[in-house]
Design a protein that fits this description.
alpha+beta
Length: 60
């Protein structure tokens, strides 16, 4: 099954979208890539919300 998607701010001032089972997993991925700004992880509940964020990010 699909893991829920989370958004977190990266060091470039943009957002990374990752799929993970929980916030700890997101933190681990972010730490692994050493690509984290101020940590503020938002679970993305709705698929259209994810698409919206992706569109916003791609406009940056």
């Amino acid at each position: 099954g699909l893991s829920p998607a989370y958004a977190y701010p990266d060091l470039s001032g943009g957002f990374q979208i990752v799929e993970a089972d929980n916030v700890e997993e997101v933190m681990a991925l972010a730490a692994f890539y050493e690509d984290v700004g101020e940590i503020s992880i938002s679970p993305i509940v709705e698929a259209d919300e994810l698409i919206e964020i992706r569109e916003q990010v791609s406009k940056l």
